[in-house]
Write a structure and sequence with these properties.
The chain is an alpha/beta fold and 573 residues long. It is built from 15 helices and 27 strands. The protein has 3 domains: 364 residues, Glycosidases (TIM Barrel); 83 residues, Immunoglobulins (Immunoglobulin-like, Sandwich), CATH 2.60.40; 73 residues, Immunoglobulin-like, CATH 2.60.40.
Length: 573
């Protein structure tokens, strides 16, 4: 592992500009900006830290509160973020009309008071309008402080479900050792998923308190411990909560992404100590087990560290991903609270891509949108200069949806009018454009619009139709699976098939170069999935190949391959 970390850092140093040079770490990274990665932000509502600053006590207050949120989302959209984790359950209080828990005070200034509108629904609508996902951020174990509990009276968590609560020296918490706690948390997540079109449920503080917080769960341990060690019992309790939430969410809507934010270091590493602060041993959060058991679609570890406290643990998370999504959480707030230089976060961003994690998340939104030390500018003009889709949940479903039909293109006074017919409900669309044909939909630079809803789109362009770039359209389902592209304006001179590279097409017959070393001929679709694999021959039959655009590869012994070219296959019917 140490050797691989050093390789990452050496590669990073080659990308960074020399001292005194203009530029940033991003300039060397744009060449492999991935088409798919999570670009997430934690948008904190507790105490109105990120939102809302304005209180909704009347109609004008509601309007100002909503405008404030829209301004934040506009800033995030302009920097090409695709995921907003909105703090929805705060401290056993919520920001939506719940049949289980009372309103949080952040909205009106008073706990339990209705703000006069549904903030969660409003946030979902505004995020989706901007092509961003909204994940409901649920703070799991902590509850009211004593002052809030007293003000709420019978509506306080410790009065409503007293058998599930523990009193610490600071506040009330849910007791993971009580079996009913898992069901209670699951019911909250079920309420959100069943009533709202959220894209994800994000669990925070799904763990025991840190050692500095005093509490006693001895009674529950005597009752339910069943001969286990206290440490293992606590770990099993937290995992039981995760299982129940997973069951509740996935039973209702399997496409909803379930994630959590464990402590940023899973455990001590062979050559790097976690210094007593890790997920598994300090707070009984066995997050890597949750990956192995398929209980999490995505982990967002809170990696608010630098240097040797960051890089080895980053690689450990990625190495243990079990094919699920790892999104390191970066502490941009440390640039203000601990005076970190911007270069620390820039380098950590860069290494997340070098390590091939599947995105980045930032705590908190205000430190990004207010451009702390120029970080927003760094993202908007460099690191996130190209758009990105979120990774697909292929373990839930990997079947591509049907493509759109009935595509038309018309030049109007308002711009280029594109229309289409949707093959089914519940799909959105991605529009790609390029001056080169066929349009490469795997190149993020060709993505013009993502997560489009409806049946029409107007593109700002005054060019005549004959001078327009090529436009292709795909559908994308709630799991993130994307259809084959269909074209608005394929070249008029297009024969039944187009080939690029060393392959050629004559009278419907594909010809590939003779190669005695090659054993197989493989056809991959534009999502990189192999759809046809046959014995290598210079004149292969394409009868089994559906219409589409394919990368053609030769495969040698031991699985080594060689790209032969691109095939746009349009067989005669």
């Amino acid at each position: 592992m140490r050797k691989q970390i050093i390789t990452f850092l050496l590669a990073l140093s080659a990308l960074l500009p020399a001292k005194g040079q203009a530029g940033s770490a991003t300039e060397g990274l744009l060449g492999f900006s991935p088409k798919r990665e999570v670009r997430a932000i934690w948008l904190t509502t507790i105490g109105g830290l990120d939102w809302p600053r304005q209180k909704a006590t009347d109609a004008s207050g509601i309007r100002r509160q909503q405008e404030e949120l829209c301004h934040i989302l506009d800033r995030l959209q302009a920097a090409r973020f695709n995921t907003v984790m909105l703090q929805t359950r705060v401290r056993s209080t919520v920001i939506y009309p719940s049949a289980i828990e009372p309103w949080d005070e952040c909205l009106t200034g008073r706990t339990g008071r209705n703000p006069g509108y549904d903030p969660l629904q409003f946030a979902i609508d505004e995020c989706h309008r901007r092509g961003m996902e909204l994940h409901a951020w649920v703070v799991a174990i902590p509850g009211h402080n004593f002052k809030t509990a007293a003000a709420l009276g019978s509506r306080a968590m410790n009065r409503r479900v007293p058998n599930l609560c523990l009193k610490t020296d600071q506040n009330w918490i849910l007791n993971p050792g009580e079996p009913g706690t898992a069901d209670y948390l699951a019911s909250i997540c079920e309420e959100i998923v069943s009533h709202y079109d959220v894209d994800g449920i994000h669990l925070d503080y799904i763990r025991y308190p840190e050692k500095e917080i005093r509490y006693s769960d001895a009674s529950a341990f005597r009752k339910y411990g069943q001969g286990k060690r206290l440490s293992q019992w606590r770990t099993d309790n937290v995992t039981h909560c995760v299982r129940q939430v997973h069951k509740a969410v996935k039973t209702l809507k399997p496409w909803v992404r379930l994630s959590c934010s464990p402590i940023g270091k899973y455990s001590d590493l062979p050559r790097q100590s976690a210094r007593g602060w890790n997920a598994r041993d300090a707070v009984h959060q066995d997050a890597q087990l949750w990956l192995r058991e398929g209980l999490m679609d995505m982990l967002v570890p809170m990696m608010y560290f630098q240097g040797n406290n960051f890089y080895p643990f980053l690689y450990d998370w990625q190495q243990s991903s079990c094919g699920r999504i790892i999104v390191p959480g970066l502490g941009v707030y440390m640039m203000q609270e601990r005076s970190w230089p911007l270069t620390v976060i820039e380098q950590e961003c860069a290494v997340t891509r070098l390590a091939k994690t599947q995105g980045q998340a930032y705590f908190r939104s205000r430190f990004v949108t207010e451009d702390t030390k120029g970080f927003y500018s760094y993202l908007q003009t460099g690191f996130y200069s190209l758009p990105a889709l979120t990774p697909a949940l292929t373990w839930e479903s990997n079947t591509p949806p049907a493509p759109p039909t009935g595509l038309t293109m018309e030049q109007t006074a308002n711009g280029l009018q594109l229309r289409w017919d949707m093959p089914s409900e519940g799909l959105r669309l991605n529009l790609y454009r390029s001056r080169r044909w066929p349009v490469n939909i795997e190149n993020a630079a060709n993505m013009a619009y993502s997560y489009v809803s409806g049946n029409a789109l107007t593109v700002a362009s005054s060019l005549p139709l004959s001078s327009q770039p090529y436009y292709v359209l795909t559908t994308i389902d709630r799991y993130g699976n994307e259809s084959e592209p269909v074209a608005f304006n394929a070249p008029h001179e297009t024969p039944e098939s187009i080939c690029k590279g060393t392959i050629s097409m004559q009278d419907g017959q594909l010809t590939v170069p003779a190669d005695r070393r090659a054993e197989f001929l493989v056809f991959d679709d534009m999502q990189g999935r192999t759809v046809l694999s046959i014995r290598y021959t210079t004149r292969p039959s394409l009868e089994q190949l559906s219409p589409g655009t394919y990368t053609v590869r030769a495969i040698y012994k031991k699985g080594k391959g060689h790209r032969l070219g691109t095939l746009l296959w349009r067989p005669n019917k």
